[in-house]
Specification:
The chain is an alpha+beta fold and about 300 residues long. It contains 12 helices and 11 strands.
């Protein structure tokens, strides 16, 4: 009996899965379509925590929501896309007052990690791509949702539409081919820190995992980025803390914990040393809409 490939869960959600080919076949292909879908979320609707063996990209068509991925928290709205790489644990939730609608596409294959990595390194927020015309991506995904049957011809059609979407993304993020060819150990370590800053990282162990001496890593990293890996990691954590303080109502203890600080007092001390304000004071004076920030 042929497996179904178009799932209509309710009036607000559709998903198309290609089931003619096995996951093993797809994982051994260069790049292979896995699934695509669309959903109008109800207020507060959430999904996860979830671990996936394939890469996934969501395009926010309207509304707002937030993404949790390996302790990182991002607040998203219309025009954003969020990338969930294979092997990462993610959780995402629609806003309670302005729930989002999104379309998504999933893929895997030998080259999928490389392409996903290239997209992520082309965006300042790593997991998030901002200011996209997400409607044009929905149009292509709608073509996938319009496919019927479970034949090899449909597999190739879905794959061609996947490649179209990936091509559009590379164009929209202005991917720099020349820069990518010059990726060094310092770049790879920076990317690792950018995506794993919430974990307990020992620079000596990190250098060993990349096959270099800690002193060498510190020198080449400092030459390229102006900070030692340890200093860069600390500044990165504090930068993320600033964003969370300005955009969320999370307690300082939760923010500290989500950034890998085991001691809230130590976090507050470092924060005040860097910004001359405590985390609570920083939130008071910098959060949008606060009276302290109103100069009118």
């Amino acid at each position: 009996m042929e497996k179904p490939n178009l799932f209509v869960y309710n009036k607000t959600m559709k998903e198309y899965k290609e089931t003619q080919h096995s996951l093993i076949y797809k994982s051994n292909s260069d790049l292979s379509f896995y699934s695509a879908g669309y959903e109008d979320c109800l207020p507060g609707y959430h999904y996860g925590p979830k671990y996936r063996s394939y890469d996934l990209i969501h395009f926010v068509l309207k509304g707002k929501g937030k993404l949790h991925i390996n302790e990182h928290i991002f607040h998203l709205s219309t025009g954003d896309a969020f990338i969930i790489p294979a092997g990462k644990v993610s959780y995402y939730e629609a806003s309670t007052d302005d729930p989002w609608s999104y379309a998504w596409i999933g893929y895997l294959g030998i080259s999928s990690q490389t392409y996903t990595y290239q997209l992520m390194t082309s965006s300042e927020d790593i997991y998030i791509i901002h200011q996209l015309d997400t409607k044009k991506y929905k149009e292509v995904i709608s073509q996938i949702l319009g496919l019927q049957g479970n034949t090899t011809s449909q597999y190739f059609k879905a794959n061609s539409l996947l490649l179209n979407i990936i091509g559009m993304l590379f164009e929209d993020v202005s991917f720099n081919e020349r820069s990518w060819r010059k990726v060094s150990v310092a770049d790879e370590v920076k990317f690792y820190l950018d995506t794993n800053y919430s974990e307990k990282i020992v620079i000596k162990d990190l250098a060993k995992s990349f096959g270099v001496h800690p002193n060498y890593l510190s020198r080449i990293f400092s030459e390229k980025f102006g900070y030692s890996p340890k200093h860069y990691l600390l500044k990165l954590k504090l930068k993320k803390a600033c964003r969370l303080l300005m955009t969320t109502g999370l307690p300082v203890s939760v923010i500290a914990g989500s950034l890998g600080f085991e001691d809230q007092l130590a976090f507050s001390k470092l924060f005040k040393k860097e910004f001359s304000l405590s985390p609570t004071e920083y939130r008071k004076y910098n959060r949008p809409g606060s009276l302290a920030n109103d100069k009118s």
